[in-house]
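Hi, here's the filled form for the chain we discussed.

Project: internal
Contact: R.S.
Residues: 388
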Amino acid sequence: MCHVVIVGGGLQGVEAVYLAHKAGWQVTLVDRDVNCPASGMCDSFIHADVTKKDPLPLSANDIDFMIPALEDDAALATLESWTREHAVPFAFDRTAYATSSSKVKSGRLFFRLNIPTPEPWPKANYPMIAKPSRSSGSRGVRILASPVDMDSEIPHLIASESLVIEEFLQGPSYSLEIMGCSGHYLSLPVTELFMDEAFDCKCVVAPADLSKTFIDQFNEIAIHIASSLSLTGIMDVEVILHEGELKVLEIDARLPSQTPTAVYWSSGTNILCLLQDIFLWDKLIGDGPLPDVRGVVYQHIHIRPGLLEVAGEHLMYHVGPLKIKRSFFGADEAITNYRDGVNEWVATLIISETDRQSALAKKDAVLADIRDKFHLDLYLDRTHYLLN
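And the returned structure, exactly as it came back:
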């Protein structure tokens, strides 16, 4: 049995532990927070702060490989040094990550490769979106609807290259994971992303409602970027379809959260098994995009007395250890802190059916059943007003 060490028990760690168990692996989780979300899902837990230079309390003898599930530069440097010293494969591409973790650097890459992207400030028209250069997801994102919103702080941040401002584009959003090594790349199925009012992803649906022409274009864009970075491992590419054109919003050369599980349930492909192929045996089996097989909905919910709320994955973070539950109120599986008798809980529902429309219909039935069982008269599912 493969023994994998996953470092980071946040939402990326939840994704990694979940998929590692689907692969039948033994999982050791390392985190400085004993109550981190993934701590309730692993086989063994090590309490350690890897941002410090103290020796890691690990024995390399029985570790097959290590996966980082965090975005802390100090921690990544420590882990890279430790795995090199102990000859443990480390599923991380430092060079690709250095580019993707900076929206300024990745923007320069897109410009050099002639990749379509939103128009940057000051050429962009209002509304615009401001995003921290070194932050993923929705953290620190704000909308600039008019010149009034362009306060005195923002030009200073632009000058220090800590903030990126570009035109705010409306349209459906999509994600694609591309994996590879030694110049050989494999595109995974495209997933569709739905955002809450803070632009945090609240739902992932597969297969994406996107034509084959656009899927082929998306694959070409992803391969072009991966090739330019000589990617070893995994990279997530997010695009928006705006006025008939795919435009790249961001890339992340690390294990993402949310979409890998949707890909697993839709196509049967486990991204962690592909990472194992790449970092243990320097190979990647397969060529061309993988097929979608089933419809999948991956949805976050928050239950409070009288209310069912749908919102972004931030719901799942500060809630303590999570567990995997099967056949959860009609959903195939759920990642949740639910316990009998509690009146407030969160869950990531995983719903699978033969096709996209059937999965969406099943999701509606699951939510209706939960509302009925817990007498939840109120239902809240917000989207940012600019997207309405």
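Let me know if anything looks off before we file it.
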